[in-house]
Design a protein that fits this description.
Layout (H helix, E strand, L loop, with lengths): L3 H13 L3 E6 L9 E5 L4 H9 L6 E5 L2 E6 L9 H13 L4
Antiparallel strand pairs: 1-2, 2-4, 3-4
Length: 97
């Protein structure tokens, strides 16, 4: 589903537009299994990016004003763990997320 390169591009875009990528989302009907997700909030440009770049068969959860796009079978690809950890650290340091 995601390659190291596609995940890196997604993270870079999301960071530039105030969205957050996580690797531990568990959506409806996943029974605790974890996957990659994007917390878009009200950022329509992030949703447009996901549509334009055909990020695969994903699902959407809406929680009031916030929107989460997630891919139940998507996990962090091999070799991309450091990219994901760096993004998590960046989000932890940034109050906008």
């Amino acid at each position: 589903m995601f390659t190291k390169r596609s995940l890196q591009s997604l993270i870079r875009f999301c960071e530039d537009h105030g969205a957050q990528v996580v690797d531990d989302y568990s959506g409806r009907g996943m029974y605790g299994a974890k996957c990659i997700a994007v917390y878009c909030g009200r950022h329509s440009e992030v949703r447009d990016y996901l549509k334009r770049n055909s990020m695969g068969e994903g699902r959407v959860d809406s929680m009031g004003f916030d929107v989460v796009h997630y891919w139940p079978s998507a996990t962090v690809p091999e070799g991309a763990e450091q990219i994901m950890e760096a993004h998590k650290a960046n989000c932890a340091d940034n109050e906008d997320y």
